[in-house]
Design a protein that fits this description.
12 helices; 345 residues; Rossmann fold; elongated; six-stranded mixed beta sheet; four-stranded antiparallel beta sheet; alpha/beta; 13% strand; Chorismate Mutase Domain, subunit A
């Protein structure tokens, strides 16, 4: 079939309209071997002649499964022998650079203990490769389905509004000038599956994706199908749209909180009457931003609420110790952070 499909057109359009990637950019494509990442890889290669990109591929072996080495070889062989030939043909039709893809394999020294640890290690690999090879962006195969699942996962963890704006289209790559880009947020998982079938792309079936011990798998395999059947067949699309709306709201509120906080903050103190004059949504965000600057870890909802309660409290009122042994206490017109052993002033 033709190498241009409606899905190609949708991804091409979203890249242009949202300005996610630049022409002639060096781009690293994260490929696990699953349907979403293979769909992404083919689309990126098919679009390469129009954009003039220099493309590389990275596969991260987390050492979680006994077949992880075979999975890595599958991706390497497919890149070197399969899609690469299609990329060369496309390059002859107008791509600026017809060099084959650069393949990178990152392998963990031992099995990583959690999804969070695996994610941190994976993104550290991306950053190192970006520095070493000059990649300006890393693209991943996250879809609207992943976005819906992440929203539900964060909602049930009590993450607040920030966590509901799940999976941004583009975000910084650590402290580097590069970015993480998610072009497939315009697609649902059933669409990437059909795409792989239409273009006869081989898909590596990851056994961990069906392991219901992982909460995200239960959301994907049990909760979302139940919601689709009994509540709303379009629940994935609507949840993804909700995440999109929340991202805009959160970005605006964070900006307004930062602007409001600057004249109200004095090193390790907040002017409590000034904060009290703000709308409640900004009060909470100003306090959370303030605590983030001074605590060793992100403040919880309960910790923010304790400081919020000091806005109208009497002189000398204080919170329980935060992580690291710091307390917040009322000192005149200010809420100050001090070591728990320090007497109130």
């Amino acid at each position: 079939m033709s190498d241009w499909s409606p899905i190609h057109a949708r991804v091409h359009q979203v890249l242009r309209s949202r300005q996610l990637l630049r022409r002639n950019q060096s781009i690293l494509i994260a490929v696990s071997g699953g349907q979403d990442s293979l769909c992404l890889l083919k689309i990126m290669q098919d679009l390469q002649p129009r954009w003039g990109w220099r493309l590389g591929v990275v596969h991260c072996d987390h050492q979680w499964r006994s077949d992880s080495g075979a999975n890595a070889e599958f991706v390497r062989d497919w890149v070197n022998q399969g899609i690469t030939q299609e990329a060369k043909q496309g390059a002859k039709q107008g791509a600026k650079d017809d060099e084959p893809l650069t393949m990178h394999l990152c392998q963990a020294e031992s099995a990583l203990g959690s999804e969070a640890a695996a994610r941190a290690w994976r993104y550290d690999c991306f950053e190192k490769l970006a520095v070493a090879y000059g990649y300006g962006a890393v693209v991943t195969g996250h879809t609207a389905s992943d976005r819906a699942e992440t929203l539900l996962y964060n909602l049930m963890r009590g993450c607040g509004g920030d966590g509901l704006g799940a999976l941004q289209w583009i975000r910084p790559l650590g402290d580097l000038p590069g970015t993480i880009v998610r072009p497939l947020l315009v697609l649902e998982r059933q669409e990437t599956a059909q795409f792989c079938q239409d273009f006869q792309l081989p898909v590596w079936e990851d056994s961990t994706n069906s392991d219901r011990r992982y909460q995200r798998n239960r959301i994907r395999l049990e909760l979302l199908p139940y919601l689709q059947e009994h509540f709303n067949p379009q629940v994935v699309r609507h949840l993804s749209q909700t995440a999109e709306l929340w991202q805009g709201d959160v970005a605006y509120l964070e900006e307004q909180a930062s602007l409001s906080r600057l004249p109200l903050q004095q090193d390790n103190a907040l002017h409590r009457h000034g904060v009290y004059q703000l709308p409640l949504a900004l009060q909470r965000r100003v306090i959370r931003q303030f605590l983030q600057e001074h605590l060793p870890q992100a403040p919880t909802f309960e910790q923010v609420e304790k400081v919020l309660g000091l806005l109208n409290a009497g002189q000398g009122s204080q919170t329980d110790p935060f992580p690291g042994g710091t307390i917040a206490l009322v000192s005149g017109d200010w809420i100050r952070l001090k070591p728990a052993s320090t007497d109130p002033v």
